[in-house]
Design brief:
Strand content: 5-15%
Organism: Methylorubrum populi (strain ATCC BAA-705 / NCIMB 13946 / BJ001) (Methylobacterium populi)
Number of strands: 3
Order of helices and strands: HEHHEEH
Protein name: DNA-binding protein
Oligomer: single chain
Radius of gyration: 14 Å
Strand order of the largest sheet: 1-3-2
Distance between the termini: 51 Å
Structural class: alpha+beta
Largest sheet: 3 strands, antiparallel
Length: about 80
């Protein structure tokens, strides 16, 4: 049997390969959401996860999130405003 060369689609039909869709750690999430990983931006990620409903989960003690899910969440926040 040969393995498929087609990457698996990311969550929500984003089309991103799973490895590119998944972010592991607050630094990666902060860089994605705010453009750079700083201590302040990491704290903003933790605050959003705790108080604002940022869609994320723990995996082995690390905060994880999917790019596609965060983009959808941001879009929902924009539509609600």
């Amino acid at each position: 049997m040969s393995k498929s060369a087609t990457p698996l689609a990311g969550a929500n039909g984003s089309g991103l390969p799973l490895a590119q869709d998944l972010m592991t750690g607050a630094p990666a999430i902060a860089a994605f959401m705010f453009g750079q990983d700083t201590e302040t931006n990491r704290r903003r990620v933790y605050h959003a996860a705790d108080k604002l409903g940022l869609p994320c989960f723990k995996l082995g003690g690390s905060l994880c999130a999917r790019r596609s899910t965060i983009l959808r969440w941001i879009e929902q926040q924009e539509n609600a405003a």
